[in-house]
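so my prof wants the structure for this chain in the C-alpha cells format not the other one, which i didnt know existed until like an hour ago. anyway here's the sequence
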Amino acid sequence: MLQDIHAGDIILLHNNGLHTAEALPLILEGLQKLGLTPVPVSELLLEGDYYIDVNGIQRQK
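here's what i got, hopefully its the right format
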C-alpha cells in the first residue's frame, strides 16, 4: 500500500481511529524505507495567493 505514496502526498490518520495507534509505527517505518519524511500539512501548503487546479494540485497565482 505504501508503494503508491509519493513526496507531497497527504496521509490522513484519524485521532480516534480503531487501529491508528498500532498502525502508525509501521507506516512511519515504511515511509522511512521509501526515503520519505513525514511533515505537518502546513509545510506542504503554498503560502500566499494560490488556487487549486482541476487536478486538485495547489498552484500559485
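also thought this was worth mentioning. Strands lie at 50-52, 58-60.
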